[in-house]
Amino acid sequence: MRFTPNKKGLIGETLEEFTADLEQAKFPKYRAKQVFDWVFKKKVHSIEEMLNLPVDLKLWLSENYEINPTKVVLDKRSNDITQKFLVQLGDQSLIETVLIRAPQVGVGQSDSRKTVCLSIQVGCAYGCKFCASGLLGFKRNLLASEVIAQFMHMAEMDSKDSVNAEKRSVPFDNIVFMGMGEPLANYDALVRVLKILNAPWGLNIGARRITVSTSGLAPQIEQLADEGIGIRLAISLHGATNEVRNKIMPINKKYPLEVLIPAAEAFHKKLGRMLTLEYILIDGINDGLDQARELAKIAHRLHAHVNCIPYNKVEGLEWKRPSINRQNKFVKVLKKERVSVTIRREKGHSINAACGQLKLKTDLALAQSESQPSNPFNSPQ
Ligand code: SF4
User: Fold this and answer.
1) Is residue 381 part of a domain?
2) Which residues are catalytic?
3) Does one domain contain both 297 and 233?
4) Helices (H) and strands (E) in the chain, counts
5) pTM to 2 decimals?
6) Measured in angstroms, how far is the CA atom of residue 194 from the centroid of ligand 1?
7) Within 6 Å (CB) of ligand 1, which residues are found?
8) Residue ending a domain, choose from 26, 42, 66
9) CA 235 to CA 303: how far, in whole Å?
10) Distance between CA atoms of 99 and 85, rounded to whole angstroms?
11) Is residue 247, in this structure, part of any structural domain at all?
12) For the segment 238-252, what is each residue's pLDDT rounded down to a tens digit?
């Protein structure tokens, strides 16, 4: 399903496109930069606040554009300082944005490192078996403005909240596309968003702070390398052989490891960025020591860091988290093979912060109260 809003979202435009729009409407092109300064630097909420614009331009803007086409309908903070927004879109769809605050070595504050996790689709079509988005599938791609909107909402909340806000040149240490949806399946919007995040006329965020996570769309991985935006890439591997991966990630049948690994290798060679292999440890499914040994081979070939994440239980799905003992044995094999590895004891249990679970529960509750079909999604990618 495609969503076409009545007005375009200013925060989803590139300077080039917006300048062309302005010129077509017979306004001088230098006005584009002024408008973008109000939107991305001064972060105003209304066109009325753009004080140096003439009345006719404000009127034209109001007729054709809105700044941020979304609103936050739920703001939940967990005890372990993970915060989650439920964001409502123009067609009433709901998506999630998560902020994770973590300690930073040497800084001495418990919440000094901040990562914002953005969604890129409503639901997901890829049906990974451990992920609740497979329960009801895909609704639609997000517009670039709806993705940037999530960032803007989080940044605004954080600037009001944080004692360090004024000392930061950018609000977050990392921006990760690991929320709902497969980023490379919404390729055009993703590339547009990356440009807006990275550009000096936009949010001016260094590309190396941005990580795109994919379940393994090999052709788009190579295409993304050609865009020349030096972002980081994370591959959601979750299985180190085709046999295991086929069982839990249908995408592997289309792009098996012998196709995916060379694409990731090409990305690494072109951009010189270290890759990350995300590996959710699921009890009895992919946490055997044979998988650890195969994973080590892939990590060496890709010069990749491995990030192990013990599975976060999703209501309605059968999978379980391995015992600490099994987790440790898996990691020990990787370390013995001299792989760079971390195990993430994930934050946010108390607010269901594994991507999608807040939406899952909210949708289920809404469905119960309204007796309408719900759209529960979950994307631990
Ligand atoms: S893990 Fe990612 S690609 Fe797989 S179904 Fe969930 S959101 Fe989609």
Assistant:
1) no
2) 96, 355
3) yes
4) 13, 14
5) 0.88
6) 20
7) 124, 126-128, 131, 133-134, 181-182, 215, 379-381
8) 66
9) 13
10) 8
11) yes
12) 999 999 999 999 999
Average pLDDT over residues 338-350: 73
Domain count for the chain, please give it: 2
Tell me, yes or no, whether 12 and 158 share the same domain: no
Q: Each residue of 177-186: pLDDT tens digit?
A: 988 899 999 9
Question: For residue 341, which phi and psi values (nearest 5 degrees)?
Answer: -140, 145
- What tokens appear for 53 in the block? 């614009």
Q: In whole angstroms, what is the distance from residue 335 CA to residue 332 CA?
A: 5
Output the DSSP codes for 188-238. HHHHHHHHHHHSTTTT---GGGEEEEES--HHHHHHHHHHT---EEEEE--
Q: Which pair of tokens denotes residue 121?
A: 């689709």
376 lies in a domain?
A: no
- On the CB side of 22, how many CA atoms lie within 13 Å of its CA? 23
Nearest residue (by CA) to ligand 1, atom 7, is 379
Q: How many angstroms separate the alpha carbon of residue 127 from the centre of ligand 1?
A: 6
Rounded CA separation 117/179 (Å): 6
72 three-state secondary structure: strand
CB 195 within 8 A of CB 204: no
Length of the chain: 381
